[in-house]
Amino acid sequence: MKTESKLEKLLEKGEFVVTSECGPPRGADADIIRKKGALLKDAVDAVNVTDNQTSVVRMSSISACIILKQMGMEPIMQMVTRDRNRIAIQSDILGAAALGVNNILCLSGDHQKFGDHSSGKNVYDIDSVQLIQTLKLMRDQGRFIGGDEIQGKPAMFIGAAANPFADPFEIRVPRLAKKINAGVQFIQTQCIYNLDRFEKWMEGIRGRGLHEKVHILAGVTPFKSIGMANYMKKMVPGMDVPDEMIERLKSVDKEKRAEEGIKICVETIERLKKIEGVRGIHIMAIEWEEKVHEIAEKAGLLPRPVV
Amino acid sequence: MIIGEGKPINEILEMILKHKKIIVAGCRGCVTVCSAGGQKEVEILSSTIRLAREKDKAPIEIFETTLERQCDTEYLEQMRNYIDEYEAVLSLACGAGVQFLAEMYKKIPLYPAINTNFIGVTEKQGIWSERCQSCGNCMLERTGGICPITRCSKSLLNGPCGGSSDGKCEIDSEIDCAWQIIYERLMELDLMERFEEVEDIKDWSTSRDGGPRRIEREDLKL
Q1: What is the mean pLDDT of residues A252-257?
Q2: Which of A7, A101, B118, B145: disulfide with B130, CB 3.0–4.6 Å?
């Protein structure tokens, strides 16, 4: 145990964990975070706060994390390397740790081309793997990238993402191994729709014993509509939505499709729970936080344990 | 080489609107090879400007010249005899050439006729693409000869990211995923074990981030 993280404690205890996601608002209204937080509070162990996801400007991840923390929740601060250089990154890590944020998810971030400021410059002074390295260096060796000693080490539980559905598939296990080499402790995956491919990836992970070196949380996102499913399939890079999922949504009446989406999500979780090496579920209900509790309940994930 | 591309003609006409007597200066270096600023482009651009100005009943006198290089004082010096007879110079050189011209001739306004885009290659006739960002500390020996700084949209040194799909980059289906190519090369060269070694945080001080760069070589100085 290296940190005060509740998520780390639960995983170390061998609990099957549940996390979810909260996207900050495009404004300064803290109540929006509080409302989302209240919907998630009893349904999950920890909540990711996205960092200007899809390169659209939003309230900062760090501040939304603090708002959740004030509600007694366990935030996972997402941090992308797109917008900050090593000075700002390390500074924000210190600030977040000082305010009691115990978990971080290291990401490279979507390219700004997708967002509302596509004419901006990106930074990418370091990448997501190097961000993992940085966290480990700061926490375990008490040093900055520049070499100086840190007064008051930031004790963060270090996470990263993995996308078993991006190409080339053969590189996806080695890439996770690389993140483990850098010091990652937990992984949250991209939304899983193609379970066969996910199982094949997990086989590769187990084949190398990597599931014993890192806690893997499997990501799921319920479909609200056919439009959303099609959007995910065609527009979101590195997303694998099999046709039969869309066919299944089409097979029910329009007003029952959201319900069917929840059903698919619950069935997916049931299957994921049985896969050796999966240590928890990450429910990303995009702008649909009110359904997380229901999904967790139907999937037999409630009540959540108390630490 | 340095790849450039002519600016839109309306932008150029707007820049030189007030002038009646100018020099249009090309360069026989990189911009000739990429057909952006050589003698041929000087001729075409000058004719286009003359025609447009005649149409607007504001004729312009143009002296056409193409220097061996505009990034070398020796060749820029050749303009000294006549430059004072003109009101301005419209240069088709890369950004370096235009600036060096400005440094040498301080009293005459200078206008860039091309945009300088990148250091790249001629893929095939009419198609150029970027290969180098001149970071000043080459790492190609570790990435199978493919530069991730230049060719990965996020310059990831430990890619590929989760957006790589069918060998293409998430930002544009016309752009190859650099890490897909690196992976293929490392496989071919039987160097995949290298892939799992974390590429350390880069020292960008040799890049432009370290401030404008300069090289001095004692062995060559006069």
Answers
A1: 95
A2: B118
